[in-house]
Amino acid sequence: MSISHTSLLHLPPSVNPTSKPSNSSPILFSFHLKTPPNPALLTSKASSFMRPLTLARNPIKKSHRPICPKISNSVEAGIGIMGTKLGMMSFFEEDGTVVPVTVVGFREGNIVTQVKTESTDGYNAVQVGYRRVRDKKLTKPEMGHLEKSGIIPMRHLQEFRLVDVGEFEVKQKLELEELFSEGDLVDVSGTTIGKGFQGGIKRWNFKRGLMTHGSKSHRALGSIGAGTTPGRVYKGKKMPGRMGGTKRKIRKLKIMKIDNDLRIVMIKGALPGKPGNLLRIAPAKIVGKNIPKS
Predict the structure, then answer these.
(1) For residue 241, with 0-12 CB atoms within 10 Å meaning exposed, 13-18 middle and 19 or more buried, which class applies?
(2) What is the model's pTM?
(3) How far apart, in whole angstroms, are the C-alpha atoms of residue 189 and residue 223?
(4) CA-to-CA distance for 88 and 116, rounded, in angstroms?
(5) DSSP alpha helices (H): ranges in the chain?
(6) Which of 68, 221, 287, 289 is deepest in the core (most CB within 10 A)?
(7) What is the pLDDT of residues 10-43, one digit of tens each?
(8) Which InterPro entries would you find in this protein's record (predicted)?
(9) Which one has a higher pLDDT value, 28 or 100?
């Protein structure tokens, strides 16, 4: 159903050269709309012939704009500690089963250097220091941060975000046997071994070409895309580049043995990095146990 709408416009004398100012009369024209017009959006301007109708803008109110919810950072399942990777060995269980384990040692450290709360820093976290070093190994801002709390110089400082930090205080010593026990599952983070610049075969396990029968493509990458369409290389294309040297977390590893006399812990499986690298050990996040399913 169409609705007829009539508008009245006054034409200036300059539009028609034969017309006279005294004989100028308004012109009526009609147009059909499928829906009735909104009187608040239609305004008529008689001073200009080129703009007979103007649409008035309807500004969007701030209350109607979608508000993005605040994204909260992930929280650890519990306080953790830092250690040093020593190497790998074989561990024999009571039934004779051989289990490959990684030995992690602990130097002087694992001391609480700062407690952050929502009132002071906007979130709850515990900062832990590890591995004592000489004063000249740290910068003046780092020394000032530790001297403020009266703590010895520490090489590594890391935070553990927790739900509640009420039971922690500055200068508190974190002991391995008090936090973990044999059979617990932990998440271990570290930096992988750097391999440098590598080709596609070693970096992405690509297949090589024939080495005989006249083949001239042995370990080359090959085609990296189509021609004119799309005329570019897609993002994320697997190509030669720098391999390793990135942060990696291995989840749900079992603690096989804790030796308090040697100050070492044996964790089942391989851990990232080479011997001497820093490792971060924290309780494993398990959905339904220490993390809600929702």
Answers:
(1) exposed
(2) 0.68
(3) 36
(4) 36
(5) 140-149, 176-179, 200-204
(6) 221
(7) 444 444 444 444 454 544 444 454 555 555 544 4
(8) Ribosomal_uL3, Ribosomal_uL3_bac/org-type, Ribosomal_uL3_CS, Transl_B-barrel_sf
(9) 100
